[in-house]
Amino acid sequence: MLKGRLGLDSAKVPHSDRAGCLYLARGALTARDGTLAFLQGAPGPGDALTSGDYAIPLQGVSMILLGPGSTVSHDALRLLAHARTALAAVGEDGVRMYTAPPIMPDRSGLARLQARIWADEDLRLMTARRMYALRLGEVLPHRDLNVLRGIEGARMKETYALWAQRIGIEWQGRRYDRQKPLAADLANQALNHASSAVEAAAAIAVTATATIPQLGFIHEDPGQSFVLDIADLYRDTITIPCAFKAARDVMAAPAENIERVTRRMTGRAISAEGLIPSMIERIKALVEGRG
């Protein structure tokens, strides 16, 4: 159970009274006696449930994250829609985000606030500065977004070098050719995979809060701009440490696959750190102007 509350008010059971996100994998989600049931098959190492037949509190959660090896019935989807409970198809531990039907929230408050902030140049810059402050540990006086990006880029170079030294790997700088992703060294490949995993977690959080992925405050052009904004808040604490540790492990055991090792390590960190609930609360605080 991931206890990231959404703070919505008027569903049949208000989302503020629900438990947040529930992760299910390797089983069948079906409808039975007007509610949901999950038949858990042989569990994986990170699964919370043992094999068995479980009743699922349909209106007790805001979003079900359906992991690998799972199926869902038409009747289950109908019940989820009726209860305004979202369903997202995700990778192991939420390290990928494949699809999510609309959550159909009972209030549009966060999305409307986000759109209002984004449309006001001063408010948009203020929010971007707050996001940089969360990452850099200080409020910078600059009011030019390009200057802030330059400062953040310089800080990131230092962060990469410090983490490489701490983990004990060689680091020659961030290099990535989209046309030849496997040409990069192991540390750069691992950074790509860890970044994708954390971005998937951010996509889940954005979907769960019904905010607008296209309206970013630092990123501007990508269709997932706000997702990238949120993922970047955890680059120093999740993405880089997991990537460099995975690179170190694969250097010591060359037969291992760098993508598999990185995603598993990042997935464990996402689960252990309660990353998705943390992202949900941070999105709410940013949009509502708190913290």
Automatic annotation (TrEMBL):
Q: Which GO terms describe its molecular function?
A: DNA binding; DNA endonuclease activity; hydrolase activity; metal ion binding
- Which EC number(s) does the record attach to this protein? 3.1.-.-
| Keywords attached to this entry | Antiviral defense, DNA-binding, Endonuclease, Hydrolase, Magnesium, Manganese, Metal-binding, Nuclease
Q: Which InterPro entries match?
A: Cas1, CRISPR-assoc_Cas1, CRISPR-assoc_Cas1_C, CRISPR-assoc_Cas1_ECOLI, CRISPR-assoc_Cas1_N
* One Pfam family, short name: Cas_Cas1
Biological process annotations from GO: defense response to virus; maintenance of CRISPR repeat elements
Cofactors demanded by this protein: Mg(2+); Mn(2+)
Q: Which NCBIfam families match?
A: cas1_ECOLI
**Record function comment:** CRISPR (clustered regularly interspaced short palindromic repeat), is an adaptive immune system that provides protection against mobile genetic elements (viruses, transposable elements and conjugative plasmids). CRISPR clusters contain spacers, sequences complementary to antecedent mobile elements, and target invading nucleic acids. CRISPR clusters are transcribed and processed into CRISPR RNA (crRNA). Acts as a dsDNA endonuclease. Involved in the integration of spacer DNA into the CRISPR cassette.
What this protein is called in its record is CRISPR-associated endonuclease Cas1
